[in-house]
Amino acid sequence: MPGEFELIARLAERLPLSRRTILGAGDDCAILAPSRGPGLFTIDSVVEGVHFDLRWSTPEALGARALAVNLSDIAAMGGRPRACVVNVAIRRGLTAAFFDRLYAGLKSEARAARIDVVGGNITRARELAITIAVLGDAGAQVLRRDAARIGDEIFVTGTLGDAAVGWRILSGKIRAPQAVRKFLVGRFIRPTARLMAGERLASIRPVPAAIDISDGVMQDLGHILERSGVGAELDARALPLSPAYRAVMGGDLSLALGGGEDYELLFCIRPGYRESVLARRLRVGVHRIGRIVRGKRLRILGADAPRIAGFDQLRARA
Amino acid sequence: MPGEFELIARLAERLPLSRRTILGAGDDCAILAPSRGPGLFTIDSVVEGVHFDLRWSTPEALGARALAVNLSDIAAMGGRPRACVVNVAIRRGLTAAFFDRLYAGLKSEARAARIDVVGGNITRARELAITIAVLGDAGAQVLRRDAARIGDEIFVTGTLGDAAVGWRILSGKIRAPQAVRKFLVGRFIRPTARLMAGERLASIRPVPAAIDISDGVMQDLGHILERSGVGAELDARALPLSPAYRAVMGGDLSLALGGGEDYELLFCIRPGYRESVLARRLRVGVHRIGRIVRGKRLRILGADAPRIAGFDQLRARA
Q1: Does A229 touch chain B (CB under 8 A)?
Q2: For residues B74 and B87, what is the distance between their CA atoms, to the nearest angstrom?
Q3: Taking CB atoms and an 8 Å cutoff, what residues of chain B touch A120?
Q4: A34 in contact with B at a CB cutoff of 8 Å?
Q5: Largest CA distance in chain B
Q6: Comparing C-alpha atoms, which of B170, B219, B162 is closest to residue B51?
Q7: Spatial CA neighbour of A86 closest among A62, A99, A67
Q8: Strand B231-235 relative to strand B298-301, pairing
């Protein structure tokens, strides 16, 4: 196992930094330039055996994914990522070359999202875990979970359930034709944070409510309902499914409704927006899947309830 | 094992927040009020079996310590803590009551340091780990590792080596009389971040170089030397030792020089300051232990080199 100091030095080495960072890795703290507006702050972690398996993922993809799941939280607030600090818990059996590749993936994702990696910490542990805290700049408006109003229409970006199917393909629970396997597995291994869509969504007035879909559309919509004190009706027939999802799952909506890890955005917006108009504005596919109603319940219309994983759990909460 | 959502809810529950926080835990990100000056950003982690053992520490002390080791990094830059986000990796066998007590300790430390706990994340894992990212406000000047100049005198706050002795008492490697055991163990289990000393140090001109002593005075001074491109002479006879340290270790300086976890501050300041003047100014005990010299080497004067743990390692680096 490479030494901890060596690994920190590798992480800090030649990290390109923007002018928003005064001092990057190498001191007790990074020093950031003053922010102009409000800041966004979040932390997330990926743990070996829980969120990933090294048999499935290259080190580069793992590094990129560890950051992407955090960036998705910034996207869900409509903000712009600014700086992050990275904690890596390392276990025996991993080489210095492994970490170079992990950091390469992380840095590549950071470059694409224009975020500075300003600090790191390495600790020993029994399992590999990457925990990242991200600081973002909020836009003029912030997308919050508590802003859904009765009558709002509910939209999602992209397609639903692909990552959950991909994960089950990898873990041998579902078989898939080769033609669709790569797409579905890729949606799990290498999710895209919808940063541009989030930022553009935050410019709409009145500001929509939003959340990223990390735990499945039902559970994440449930968070919006709880925070906003409203109910919702979802139209199961309107859920956007990829051709690959349909090829594997047919008409089974359980993973589109209950499967997580999609990192798409779900948002609630005042009625009247056409899908095509929103798609152009957000520069990503957008589908209307339901509406916000009075009450506290989440009703799924047009689906065979018992077949939906997690449905009862959510109904119990609502 | 309590549910993950239940634990997040407990963490977020009734957290008192300052006006610097617009929105605390419960959304995808926390929202922070704009900062006036530069920010400080750091992350640190404590892992079961590496940094702590539940047989030695109450859950309250563990929660407080997990935050304190992060606050120490803010202290070492002369800043004021502002907001933190907490990631807890939980393993089987821990009860909801355990987490309530862990959070109680964390919140109590947060209250004392006037820092807002603005978000959290819970993940499953095979071992308990608490990773905290802290955001601070920098003062008019920042204490950096790269600011030591030839001729500077080197000081430390408090006493050295107590925590390292305490850790060895807990793990059964050292025996200690009951009269001193509690003090030494307490210095390990429940370290104090020198926030006020750091903030006051940052108001001195020209601004001193500083670091917190987490890995031992030799290794941490080594970081300053490396970043500042200078050497140093330490006077082993000047190291501040507690009566408890002397009672257990006698004249053996190995843990005062090489032992970590003290979380005292080491700083390099232009010559001429008396210990008593600095102690009054920083409101903590302060001792002069050496000076910055030309070159790259760290020399220890007045000590029996081979008895000092880590000495050769550091000499090799310098």
Answers
A1: no
A2: 19
A3: 43
A4: yes
A5: 58
A6: B170
A7: A67
A8: parallel
**Predicted pLDDT at A28:** 95
Ramachandran assignment for A224, one of left (phi > 0), alpha (psi -120 to 50 degrees), beta (any other): alpha
Give CA–CA dist B179/A79, Å, rounded: 55
A26 reaches B (C-beta below 8 A): yes
Residues ≥6 apart with Cβ < 8 Å to B16:
B111
SS (H, E, C) chain B: CCCHHHHHHHHHCCCCCCCCEEECECECCEEECCCCCCEEEEEEEEEECCCECCCCCCHHHHHHHHHHHHHHHHHHCCCEEEEEEEEEEECCCCCHHHHHHHHHHHHHHHHHHCCEEEEEEEEECCCCEEEEEEEEECCCCCCEHHHCCCCCEEEEECCCCHHHHHHHHHCCCCCCCHHHHHHHHHHHHCCCCCHHHHHHHCCCCCCCEEEECCCCHHHHHHHHHHHHCCEEEEEHHHCCCCHHHHHHHCCCCHHHHHCCCCCCEEEEECCCCCHHHHHHHHCCCEEEEEEEECCCCEEEECCCHHHCCCHHHHHHHC
Quick one: which of A212, A187, A186, A188 has its CA closest to A198? A212
The predicted-structure confidence for A47-78, as pLDDT tens digits, reads as follows 999 999 999 999 999 999 999 999 999 999 99
A90 touches chain B (CB under 8 A): no
How many residues does the structure list for chain B? Answer: 318
Residues 6+ apart with CB under 8 A from A40: A73, A74, A77, A79, A134, A135, A136, A137, A138, A142, B29, B30, B31, B32
Q: Which of residues 236-295 of B touch A (CB under 8 A)?
A: none
Interface test with chain B among A41, A52, A117, by most B beta carbons within 10 Å: A41
User: Which pTM was predicted?
Assistant: 0.93
Backbone dihedral angles phi then psi of residue B29, each to the nearest 5 degrees: -135, 160
| A65: nearest Cα among A186, A169, A228, A240 | A186
Q: Is B300 exposed, middle or buried (0-12, 13-18, 19+ CB in 10 A)?
A: buried
CA distance B142 to B77: 5
State the pLDDT at residue B5: 57
Contact B146, B207 (CB under 8 A): no
Q: Which two tokens stand for residue A233?
A: 């009706």
Q: Average pLDDT of A73-92?
A: 97
Report the half-sphere exposure of A40 (CA within 13 A, side-chain side). 29
Contact flag A42-B74 (C-beta cutoff 8 Å) = no
| 8 Å CB contact of B121 and A89 | no
Alpha-carbon gap, residue A267 to A265, rounded angstroms: 6
Residues of A in contact with B76 (CB under 8 A): 28-29
Distance of CA B156 to the CA centre of its chain: 13
pLDDT score recorded for residue B36: 87
Which of A188, A142, A148 shows the shortest CA–CA distance to A164? A188
ipTM of the complex: 0.92
Burial class of residue A225 (count of CB atoms within 10 Å of its CB; 0-12, 13-18, 19+): buried
> Would the pLDDT of A273 be above 70?
yes
| Helix/strand/coil for A148 | coil
What is the mean predicted confidence (pLDDT) over A284-303? 95
A304 band by pLDDT with thresholds 50, 70 and 90:
low
